[in-house]
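Hi Y.,

Following your request, here is the sequence exactly as I used it, all 124 residues.
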Amino acid sequence: MTWTSSQQDVYRFLEDRFVCAQACAECARMCVLRTGVLDPAGTAEAERYRRTGIMCAEVCDATCRALTEDTGQDPAGLRVQLEWCRTVCLDGARAFDARPGAEPSAAACRACAAACADFTAALG
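Below is the corresponding structure, written out as tokens. Let me know if you'd prefer a different format.
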């Protein structure tokens, strides 16, 4: 079977969408794991850290769902969702950078932000 340029573009688009959804799911998982071990009645700094992680997990989960479910979302709406996710992930990465042992969570946030940026570019 010979693939045409058009078929290859569609395949690449779907693959990029899947990679982004996968990065969002992994980031959400890492954020939940990291913030789940914190005491909700901790210091104000720990509470800000916890809330940032929870927000990142929620936005990543919503973005993953937008990418994997047939929601009928238009490209402009999807771009907004991806940019929101990218921004929140970068905030999460900065928050995790400040916590010892949170390097894997920070890396997952950065990977998700990069995947969102890449897929936004693929949307054109």
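The mean pLDDT is 88.

Thanks again,
Q.
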